[in-house]
User: What shape does this take?
Amino acid sequence: MTDSLLLPQTVRGACPHDCPDTCALLTTVENGRATQVQGNPAHAQTDGVLCTKVSRYTERTYHPERLMQPLKRVGLKGSGQFEPVSWEAALDDIAARLKAIAARDPQAVLPYSYAGTMGLVQSESIAARFFHQLGASLLDRTICSSAGGEALVQTLGGKVGTKVEFFAESKLIVIWGSNSIGSNLHFWRLAQEAKRQGAKLVCIDPRKTETADKCHEHIALRPGTDAALALAVMHELIVHGWLDQDYIDRYTLGWDALRARALQWTPERAAEVCGVPVEQIRQLARDWGTTQRAAIRLNYGMQRVRGGGNAVRAVACLPALTGAWRHRAGGLLLTSSGHFPIQRSALQRPDLLGERRPRTINMTTIGNDLLRPASPAFGPQIEALIVYNSNPVAVAPESGKVVQGFAREDLFTVVLEHFKTDTADMADYILPATTQLEHWDIHMSYGHTDVLLNRPAIAPVGQSRTNTDIFRALALRMGFDDPCFAESDESLCRTAYGNEVQFEQLLTHGFATLAVPDAPFAQGGFSTPSGRCEFFSQRLADQGLDGLPDHLPNYELAAPGGRYPLAMISPPARNFLNSTFVNVQSLRDIEAEPVLEMHPEDAAARGIADGAVVRVFNDRGTYHCKARLNQRARPGVVNGLGIWWRKLGLNGTNVNELTSQHLTDLGRAPVFYDCLVEVATCPN
Ligand SMILES: Nc1nc2c(c(=O)[nH]1)N[C@H]1C(S)=C(S)[C@@H](COP(=O)(O)OP(=O)(O)OC[C@H]3O[C@@H](n4cnc5c(=O)[nH]c(N)nc54)[C@H](O)[C@@H]3O)O[C@H]1N2
Ligand SMILES: Nc1nc2c(c(=O)[nH]1)N[C@H]1C(S)=C(S)[C@@H](COP(=O)(O)OP(=O)(O)OC[C@H]3O[C@@H](n4cnc5c(=O)[nH]c(N)nc54)[C@H](O)[C@@H]3O)O[C@H]1N2
Ligand code: SF4
Ligand SMILES: [Mo]
Assistant: This one.
């Protein structure tokens, strides 16, 4: 053994989690074991700092419950009883089962994956090739951001916006539907810098988050009323002449129509709908209309309601009205993902489908779809489900239905995982997957504009294999002989961006910054069909939709005397990332237990004491958790912080027992925050 093997090594990587910050990691390896994961100080966006979750990464990687070998179900579906099995036996059996189903109709096979890792290689590369070659059903990956994404595309022409680093120079920052301290920490550092330079910070959020606590102003509107607020702001901009008419004339489309609509939204009317003081709306408009370097940090929290797409469209009109886009520290950022020149066809090879055009299943309605029989409209019943990078039993809406679907004895389910999640418990086979410390990958970001490379720091733990390797092995057994199935992970990292990014630079530095203009829309240049910021969208009108943004009330609106009088939102708990990390003891200790934040008035009306175990329920189900009475909840709204593992909850459910499978106005996305409930004390 050479000395270098014994000395600590530092390996450059990237955080794989579904977080806008996409941090650059430095992993210290001693004797083949990762001993520490830190933020890379050389990467400006990371600035040497990681969130609490990922700074404890080794605890997750070497967790005593990490899956070490393939497992095969022995007990009843969902009983969680498995026995170890060899990789050969597992893969042979899985391939045989898939072949038999595909011989009848390959569309009866469905992949189910999301952003457990954001890596382009360990998500949709070999896996996508595999399902394309098979001709499996396609998955519509809508569970997070597709309403807002679609709204941006319709309005600005792409998923792009203000560069995050320039928020530090802004004079007004509106943090809209985002708990930055909890889920966008590195942006918050920039907002703090701006604050020190005299910027005003405004937070628009039904919940009084830790971010709201630290902003100058908090507008605690009712969930799902953001479009009304944005339209009233426009009303004030018009009435007071706070418009950049030159910008509007040159670079926007549909102003007359939008103007007419906005004039219907007096601040008084919006105040009524939003449940906020009218003066707050006037002040927001005054600030927005009279500050030159004004920027909005929008996040996905506000598009998880029926009118989420329209709300994002309405908010996305605001920077054009005042010409905020002219300055690099002005405008709006929801996502930067559209900047990345990802070579998706090369990675995912949709051409392997040939002439076949499989149906598409929306991941949001997996509960209903697993329970659907074959029909001419639907196609074949779903007979096999291959889950990777996702925990649908915990994260998909209306879990009662999801669990019922996964429990079908005639469904063949394979789950690639690190842990025995709620979903893995429902599997026929569980296959142990590597973590980010154990594999190659390459990343984009939806919060900044750097590409990051992730090198493996340690050997796979136990018998775990990379997602890519598992799909390669299955492809071999299925007889898929296209050479694309043999491509190595390192080569896939190169394929991901082709010649668009200097791979050598990634190998030496670990990251590379894309060439993106400082102020992307300073002189128009929107990539909409008209080349303008489209207040009015002909494309939407052609689909029979409203071409202008409007306020669409929630599906579930509390009515006097209604059975379910409380609106429930379920935003992330700070120390979990969706359902990831719930099983990491040190992080779960911080979150303590599943909680429902309630306003003391709402609690008093129901005889609920702080810390009491409560029943949260509606027609879809019942969830038990602890009531936490504080001012973080506004009257009439309760906050069920997510997303606990069902089996670690108080009654074996989580907040998604209550959410519905309705879809948003645009983007076919879930409406997690459009949900009425009632709360009562628990008898026992
Ligand atoms: N710590 C942590 N970080 C995360 C995540 C996590 O689970 N934990 N999740 C990651 C993921 S998957 C994503 S998509 C991103 C973004 O994830 P988001 O879901 O956008 O998360 P937040 O930034 O918490 O923003 C949600 C905020 O929107 C508020 N909100 C709810 N309804 C409304 C509404 O109708 N209007 C307005 N204005 N606000 C509303 C909530 O109270 C909450 O504070 O964050 C990522 N980062
Ligand atoms: N009520 C409510 N529900 C929500 C939300 C909410 O705010 N409220 N947020 C929604 C949002 S924004 C999102 S994005 C979704 C998130 O839903 P998911 O994308 O399902 O996210 P996670 O719950 O983090 O589960 C990811 C799983 O992938 C696994 N994983 C990670 N890396 C790898 C890998 O390399 N290989 C394999 N095989 N597995 C891996 C992890 O162990 C983890 O169990 O949840 C949604 N659900
Ligand atoms: S979860 Fe987000 S903040 Fe935490 S290390 Fe990863 S990218 Fe950075
Ligand atoms: Mo998400």
